Amino acid sequence: MLLDIIKENERVDIMIKQCVLEDRPCTGCGECMMCDIDSSKVCDNCCRCIDRDADYIAIDIDEIIDE
User: Fold this and answer.
1) What values do phi and psi take at 32, rounded to 5?
2) Which domain holds residue 47?
3) Is residue 46 included in any domain, yes or no?
4) Residue 7 domain flag
5) Does residue 12 form part of some domain?
6) C-beta separation of 15 from 7 below 8 A
7) Distance (Å, rounded) from C-alpha 50 to C-alpha 4?
8) Higher-confidence position of 2 and 7
9) pTM exceeds cut of 0.70
């Protein structure tokens, strides 16, 4: 399990990272970093998986993961 240690006012909290794909703690498997088009490669942010046939393109960002 991956842990984040947050030190705030001399109190240390340990937070277990949650998996962004499944409802479970993160196991560090890396599945969330894989390409949606070619599952054998890590995502390189090429954006080919985004549908471009729409009038506008929007991407919802619900969390920023800092590694």
Assistant:
1) -70, -15
2) 1-54
3) yes
4) yes
5) yes
6) no
7) 31
8) 7
9) no
Rounded to 5 degrees, φ, ψ at 6 are: -115, 120
- C-beta pairs of 62-67 under 8 Å, 24+ apart in sequence: 63/20, 65/20
Name the more confident of 38 and 54: 38
Residue 63 lies in a domain: no
Q: Which residues of 4-36 are buried (b: 16+ CB within 10 A; e: fewer)?
A: eeeeeeeeeeeeeeeeeeeeeebeeeeeeeeee
User: What count of residues does the chain have?
Assistant: 67
Residue 3: band (very low, low, confident or very high) from pLDDT cuts 50, 70, 90:
low
Under a CB-based contact definition with an 8 Å cutoff, are residues 19 and 25 in contact?
yes
